[in-house]
């Protein structure tokens, strides 16, 4: 297989055969769901693991953000983190200490405790890799699942798409961007996206939950916004209609995708939150996000499954594009 996430339909097939012998597992492996739920009495323990395989710059910081995002979109509070850190032969003590400091600092920033993990120098590894495990908790009845979306729900998206994808390209492929005709200022602009608007959706999720009845949330990552929307549709067993003109793009994203012939709909999308909400609460949720400085728009609605997964632009409606792998994986493999 090619580099990147497993195809969604194949993942659903192999996960469908898994079972749990522990009745406390309220939500186990499922395509489109962001984390597991374990019954701990009056609360659920929420558990997630996610690796960092594309980025190397600020890799420890990245690991905290992407794992915390998946806890937050379950309606939970991120609390504890562990990390397995694999480093190439020849890594210096300074490099190792920098990764640990990034992990610890990023955890402290969001109130998470770094509670352990594993660190090693790994044979024949070309670049650092971190696999994080994040644990959180949520009161029973307040958990949110991707499968909770209902027909007629509005789909809200925060910030803009491909924030993470552009920041990775700027940090890992700046020379390629310049070769493609962009300037050093363009490269620097992509690096700044990592912090502004940023790839964390922890605040986005918390504000949305407070403002209205959220039926489902999802963190679109590898596979881009198109992949995230398909995962949401699969988990909920519904179809959807998306308005492409409502999907925000930064000018930096437009320039990067034009220069490198990438489709922004399929470019890794951490930084955007997808939230499903009843039409009655749509304005309240969007307004609350804007008041807290987080851009948000309605980009579509959940429909019956038989409708399919459609996207409209300039009066034309078609199936939402499918990507065999994330556009960034395609770029780095070319």
Automatic annotation (TrEMBL):
Residues 150-304 form the PurM-like C-terminal domain. Residues 32-138 form the PurM-like N-terminal domain. Pfam families: AIRS, AIRS_C. GO terms for biological process: protein maturation. CDD domains: PurM-like1 (cd06061). Belongs to the HypE family. This is PurM-like N-terminal domain-containing protein.
